[in-house]
Amino acid sequence: MQAPIFTPYHIPPLFIATAFTFGSTLPFFNQHYAIPDALPPYIDKYPPALLVLATQEGRTIVTGLVMFTLYYQGDIRAVDKFLGVVGGVLGVVDLYVCWKAGFPGKGLLRLAYGMAFSAWGLGGLSSGGQ
């Protein structure tokens, strides 16, 4: 397989892969700065939670790298399937965690983003509906 010819339909999965891969590196460089975006601010006072954050972000980096790998192998249908599953699952998990932490608005927004990307992927839009 070879890298596909780029089309604008590839922008959503490449955006997510980039955000997952590079955006998730922040806790490795400045955990305290990353907390407000990822977790409630009071977590910053509990150092073991920062280790959990770094572990979680490591897994998110791997998710982004898998998407890039599938894309550059030219398997756009696999990218769509992966985006569909990951977007939906992470959207629901984010909603649950944010809701339990007392941030229901942030959770609902993350759910909406996750479901939008999931619908894109499950609809096969990156691969042209093939």
From TrEMBL:
Pfam families: DUF4267 (PF14087). The keyword Transmembrane applies. Keywords: Membrane, Transmembrane, Transmembrane helix. The chain crosses the membrane at residues 12-29, 49-70. This is Uncharacterized protein.
